[in-house]
Amino acid sequence: MHEISHNALAYPQYPAIVLRIAMMAASRAPVASGRLLVGFRKWYYNMCGFNKIGLQRDDTIYENDDVKEALTRIPERMYNDRVFRVKRALDLSMKQQVLPKDQWTQYEEDVHYLTPYLQEVVRERKEKEEWLKK
What we know:
This protein is mainly alpha-helical. Helices cover 63% and strands 0% of the residues. Helix 4 crosses helix 6 (115-133).
């Protein structure tokens, strides 16, 4: 007597060998999906368009009070680089132009320079709010 798998009952139109191959492929899915996810992230990064005018991801964060405080904490060189990128992006935007493709910010080169400082500011603000509650 042959053992009938759950998959064979769920998909009677497919032969058992096809289901076994699909199950083997699914067992390798995390590696493939990881590469697929990175590919999707790169595609989305390029579709956003900010890299075409020389901006990095952290340059596009909305400037609320936490971001403004984080900007005061980054090294002066990083701040000056950010100001240059934003001014250049505004100029290009006004001219309705983009940078030459070799000057676009690449996904691999985009450094989240502001994120650690921003996380620290948010953590400190939440801690302060907790102290004020007591």
